[in-house]
Design goal:
The structure is a single chain. This protein has about 500 residues and is α+β, with helices and mostly antiparallel strands. Helices cover about 40% and strands about 25% of the residues. The protein is built from 15 helices and 17 strands. The strands form 4 sheets. Strands 2-1-5-4-3 form a 5-stranded antiparallel sheet. It has a 5-stranded antiparallel sheet with strand order 7-6-10-9-8, with helices on both faces. The termini are far apart.
Amino acid sequence: MRNRNELDYGCGMAGELFVSLVRQTDDIYVSLGSDLTIEYISPSVERVLGYRPEELTGRPGVLYIFPEDLARIGIHHLPAEQESEPPYIRHVAEATESYRVNRGVREIRVRHRDGRYIWCRMSFIIVRDEQGAVERIVAVGRDITERKRAEEELRRVRVNLQLAKRIAGFGSFEWYPETNELYWSDEMYAVFGCKRSDFESDMDAFVKLVHPEDRPGLAAYFLGRARRRTDEEMKYEYRVIAPDGNIRTIQAYGKWIRDQSRDAWLLAGIVRDVTIENRTEELLRTSEKLKMAGQLAAGIAHEIRNPLTSLKGFSKLLLKATGEQAERYYEIMDQEFVRIEMILGELLVLAKPQASVYQDWDIRLIVHEVADLLSSQAILNNVIIQEQAVQEACIVRCDKNQLKQVFMNVVKNAIEAMPTGGLLVISIERDGTDVLVRVTDQGGGIPEDHLRRLGEPFFTTKEKGTGLGLMISHKIIEEHDGHIRYDSRRGEGTTVTIRLPQACAEPR
């Protein structure tokens, strides 16, 4: 008797707790008869759907389900036996074997009081009698409208991203280093010029496509960062040999991401074919170099004429000179020949297209060579070039000729900004892990609305300029992981600051 009382008490307590839970939760509890008539629905329906429970009790549940979603729960409209009988409440129609289950979960749309439909996740249990006929359906519904909206937004973003990648020619990839799995998007195969059927979808197959000369650098760059697992964005340019034999230049952006579902790291990124773009940029750079070489012709002619005058004079003196005096004349003439050779060599470097070669250089040396080469043009324009550099080495990993082109362009612009002459200061200093090169002139300054546009193609403040010089300079500095900043005040002059990351090697 005592056990019986304890059991009744326990059931009573459980019932009270369940009733309290049903009243407080936002989930909707509903009980439907075999004909889908609502026998009971919890008070939470008013908070979620806007109906009072008494408005729905005794009504057909299918009236509130989006018609296209009825098939999701195995309910199909059946023809009524009488014209007065609604066609949708004859009975629960289990039309297919897939719905002959006693429990399940379905996502359906349910009509709100204001007429709109909201998404609900319905977990249901079918109660059957001894013969297997449906007695009632008990279900719990949860509002998942926000989740569905987020899923739809994500789907739309993915579709738009896929379309954007296809239009822009970007391919995407994912690589799991622990298992060597490599996943490529359809656009990747187009970028690399190969077919999905010819690719084995692992890193070894990818490496075979990479140009042999670029494999060591590519492996060192990405695998080196694979050990550190930093969240920095990686950028690398390399060549691949397409199946048709053509060499393509690929630009890759990647980032290490933690895949929580697999508890593993993966490298995710995008690539694009920049072969034509690089060729176009190289043509622009060559064009700009030739233009600069032509503009420097007057200064270079003046610079060469001075040693030639010395050579001419000493050659006449040599006719009568003997002994130590002749050796002294020879020594002076040799120095002048070296000077001419250096000037002509710099002119050839400026005009001749060359492949990029990144090495460690002391930026002070590069800037000094530029100042020395442009000294004649500065003198012709009554401009004094003053160099100010720190004592410590300022090592930068760079392509020397490309940086020289940038500095020549900036210094030349500064000289031209002072048509009546003035002081041009080139300062070099270290700032943490960076090297700063500042070129300051005493020209008329640049309007503020023009500063924002410097570096745009074909935007220039010069009467006969093209704007390509600064555009190419910006591109070169960007490729060296640096940036350019302009500070200017009307009537006081302009300062161009070039920031470049330091290398850890000793100067060459």
